[in-house]
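Worked example 2:
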Amino acid sequence: MTIQFSAPDSSTNKYWIVLAPIMAAAIVSQPAPIAFENPKWGHVSKLNIEGNEGGRLRPDVLGWLEPVSKDASDEELRERFERDGVIFVKGVIPREKVLAMRKKYFEYVSSSGVLKEQTDPEDGIFCGGDPHKFAGPGVASHLGLTEAECDFLAKSVSAHKEEFVHAFAQDGEIMKIVQRLKPEWKDPLLFKRQLLRSNIPNSEGTATKVHYDQIFLRAAPPTSLTAWVPIGDIPPESGGLIYLENSVPIGLEIEDGFTKLNANLSDEDRLSAFNVNMTDRGNLSRDAGKFARERGGGRRWLIADYEAGDVVFHHPCMIHASGVNRDPMGRIRLATDLRFADGAAPYDHRWANKYFVPGDGL
């Protein structure tokens, strides 16, 4: 199996398209262990997990994402990651540092009116009303909203350039796990472009749709690493990420199909997640339950009880989505996506040196 990717030509400052084999040997096509059951929440049938469309996910397509301690051996961390394509690491960042970041962020955007009056910004309690009026990065474009129309969006976008956000992304404990998972990398690099995502309670049709990251990182082979960082506690029904178990082989297969479909496009369009051959802005489906039943081959969506300080690391072809935020306290789910690559190997330079802005094509 091969995939087209681009590498930078320093003489022209453009990208050239080459063919390279997909290195997926480490990702085996066997289901992840299913014995784990969350001791706090019990069986998944007790929970209401909803995707972007399709309503509540049936219990037969749900399971638990098993956590691992940051103090696990390097061998265990790598083995779990290579086997499953995703690893949920507990307590990577000090809890107080994460909660301080959450408080600072909501203080920064509070002038938009997004928070309930007379509540602590750290709690991030939604003000109520129409949640679509407070659409943030990664959601507003799907709703056709602009920064001029949505003050919360404008503040959220400008936050990406603030020093407190930059400092949080640079956390050394996250990089330590990256280096343990990728010891072969000669020059671990954190991309400048990150995406602070807010999931407003009871916002219909705005949960993250089914996708994998490589669709948006096609200017390099699928060797990057994503760290999804919850900024605050995110219980199972509060809109956290859900992962289709052992789905890297499916993601690789789908991406290989897109590569063939895109063969006759221009170089720029081949790399685009929004080209003529893509659907729904680079997403695979809005209905997570239907996708699992029709494309998953018996795989389940793995959910988790995320706590401040936890970090999830996943392969760029790991298929994932998010649930609808039904937080009973009305808390806004906040998280950031950090992406890493080996600076000594081909990587997607489009992500490396620019802040996120709406409409940047990524």
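The chain has one domain: 2-96+164-352. The longest strand covers residues 333-342.
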